[in-house]
Design brief:
Blueprint: E1 2-8, H1 12-24, E2 28-31, E3 34-38, H2 41-54, E4 61-67, H3 69-73
Antiparallel strand pairs: 1-3, 1-4, 2-3
Helix pairs in contact: 1-2
Length: 96
């Protein structure tokens, strides 16, 4: 599935950890507190559990929105938007 992760987290240390969790899950940073990418269902669940363990539910908010390819293609991108071609469910391999 394609998923958006958006957050508003008060503490810098926790915010940094959440961004690292998103990057480790293979998500692409769209804005400072917004990530987008492809996640398998179990990876989404793992990410959700990791985030739930460290945030303060009284002050922080995190949203994980699933989206399908058709909806992504229909998304209006205005101004300095991200490249939709970076978001795919294809497996990519990098050789060093």
């Amino acid at each position: 599935m394609i998923a958006w992760v958006l957050y508003d987290i008060k503490k810098d240390k926790v915010r940094t950890k959440v961004s690292k969790f998103c990057e480790q899950a293979g998500l692409y940073r769209v804005q400072y507190s917004v990530f987008l990418g492809t996640l398998e269902e179990n990876d989404k669940d793992t990410l959700q559990l990791k985030i739930e363990e460290i945030i303060d539910t009284e002050t922080d908010s995190v949203y994980i929105f699933p989206m399908n390819k058709t909806e992504l293609r229909q998304t209006a991108l205005l101004g300095q938007a991200f490249d939709k071609d970076l978001i795919t469910d294809e497996v990519r391999e990098i050789f060093l």
